[in-house]
Specification:
- It is built from 15 helices and 13 strands.
- With about 350 residues, the chain is an alpha+beta fold.
- The protein has 2 domains: about 210 residues, Jelly Rolls; about 110 residues, Homeodomain-like (Arc Repressor Mutant, subunit A).
Length: about 350
C-alpha cells in the first residue's frame, strides 16, 4: 500500500507504492487497486498472472498532485462512463521521461515520446498504450489554468505541447522531480503557481492571440461572474438578472460574456447539477435527492430528473448508487485517492 513518508520538517507530503512488496501473483492487482483511481488498467500478455514490477511516488503540492511512475507495458483507459462516475475535474500534464505514450484523447490521436509533454482534461475520455516507461504526471486545478487562458483550456485535451514554452515546461517538470523531496510546503505552492503559468503560456503563447481573445472575452470579469454564481448555487434568487445586477453589467454584456459557455442560464443550471452530483457522491450526505434539487433551484422534480440524466447520462438515483459502489471498490490507497480527488486540504 502507499506509505506516507516520515519527516520531521514541513516537507511536501509524499506517498510511495512499490509492487515488489507483494507476492508475484498479487502484484498486478495491487498496482491496479492502488493506482487505478484515474484509469482502468490492463496488461498485455501474462503480466496479470506472472507479476508486475512497478512503482509510484506521489507528492501533494498545494492543490496540485505530482506522480512519478515506472512500469512495463500497460493499457490505460478512461472511458466516458469512468470520467462521469469519478467526477475528476482537473487538467493533467504528462511528461514522458522514458518509453512512449500512444493512443486517443477524445477525438485526438496522440503520440508522446521522451521529453514531450501532453495535456489532458480529466473530465474527458482517453485510451492509450504505454510502453516500458518512466513518466511524470502533474494534476492541476482546472480553474487556475482556465483563469490564465483566454476562453479556457477545454479544447486542449490530447494536445502535445510544443515550442519554446513547452521545452521550458518539460525542463521545469524534470527539475521539480529531482528537487521535490527537499521542497518545503510553502516553496511547493510557489512551484505549483509557476507550473500553472508555464502550462498557460504553452496554450496561449502569443500576445497577439491573447489580445484577440480579450476582445470578445474579458477573462477577469468572467472569473468574477463565475465566482459569484458558485457562491450562490443554493440561492433560489440566483438568475441572469441577479448576476448582471451584482456585477454592474447590462444583460446583453453578460450574455456575451457567457456565450462560449452556453449562456448564463445554461451555465447556472450546469453548475447546480454539478454541485448536486458532488453532494450525491459524498458518503456523509444523507438528504433526499428531491430535497437537494429543491435547495438548488429546481422547483420541479421531473424537470430536475430530466436535466440530470441529460447532463450525466444516468439518473441521480443511479449516480448515487453507482458512486457508492465505487467507494466500496476503492483499493489500498485511500489517502492517494483523496489527494487526486482534492478532498484533503
Amino acid at each position: 500500500m502507499f506509505d506516507p513518508a516520515v519527516t520531521t520538517r514541513p516537507r511536501v507530503p509524499h506517498l510511495r507504492f512499490d509492487t515488489a512488496r507483494h507476492a508475484r501473483r498479487r502484484q498486478f492487482e495491487a498496482w491496479r487497486e492502488a493506482v487505478g483511481v484515474t484509469h482502468d488498467i490492463t496488461a498485455p500478455g501474462m503480466a496479470e498472472h506472472e507479476g508486475l514490477i512497478a512503482s509510484s511516488d506521489v507528492w501533494r503540492m498545494g492543490q496540485a498532485v505530482v506522480s512519478h511512475r515506472r512500469f512495463p507495458m500497460l493499457h490505460f483507459a478512461r472511458p466516458v462512463r469512468r470520467a462521469r462516475v469519478d467526477g475528476l475535474d482537473q487538467y493533467s500534464l504528462l511528461l514522458m521521461r522514458q518509453g512512449m505514450w500512444q493512443g486517443a484523447a477524445g477525438e485526438a490521436e496522440l503520440t508522446l515520446r521522451p521529453g514531450e509533454v501532453g495535456l489532458f482534461d480529466m473530465a474527458r475520455p482517453v485510451a492509450n498504450l504505454v510502453t516500458d516507461s518512466s513518466s511524470l504526471r502533474v494534476m492541476l486545478p482546472r480553474d487556475a489554468v482556465d483563469a490564465l487562458v483566454p476562453g479556457g483550456a477545454l479544447a486542449a485535451h490530447g494536445a502535445r505541447l510544443s515550442g519554446a514554452a513547452a521545452a521550458v515546461l518539460a525542463t521545469f517538470m524534470e527539475a521539480l522531480l529531482q528537487n521535490l523531496p527537499a521542497l518545503e510546503i510553502g516553496q511547493a505552492v510557489a512551484m505549483e503557481r509557476a507550473m500553472v503559468e508555464l502550462a498557460a503560456a504553452c496554450l496561449a503563447p502569443s500576445r497577439e492571440r491573447r489580445e484577440v481573445a480579450a476582445g470578445s472575452i474579458d477573462a477577469s470579469l468572467l472569473l468574477r461572474a463565475r465566482a459569484h454564481i458558485e457562491a450562490r448555487l443554493a440561492d433560489g434568487a440566483l438568475s441572469p438578472d441577479s448576476v448582471a445586477l451584482a456585477l454592474g453589467l447590462s444583460r446583453s454584456a453578460l450574455y456575451r460574456l457567457f456565450g462560449h459557455l452556453g449562456g448564463v442560464a445554461g451555465y447556472i443550471q450546469a453548475r447546480r447539477l454539478g454541485r448536486i452530483k458532488a453532494l450525491l457522491a459524498d458518503p456523509r450526505e444523507g438528504r433526499r435527492i428531491s430535497e437537494l434539487a429543491y435547495l438548488h433551484g429546481f422547483a420541479d422534480e421531473a424537470h430536475f430528473s430530466r436535466a440530470f440524466r441529460r447532463a450525466f447520462g444516468l439518473s441521480a438515483r443511479e449516480w448515487r448508487a453507482e458512486r457508492g459502489g465505487a467507494r466500496r471498490a476503492e483499493g489500498e490507497s485511500p489517502m492517494y485517492q483523496a489527494w487526486v480527488r482534492g478532498v484533503i486540504g
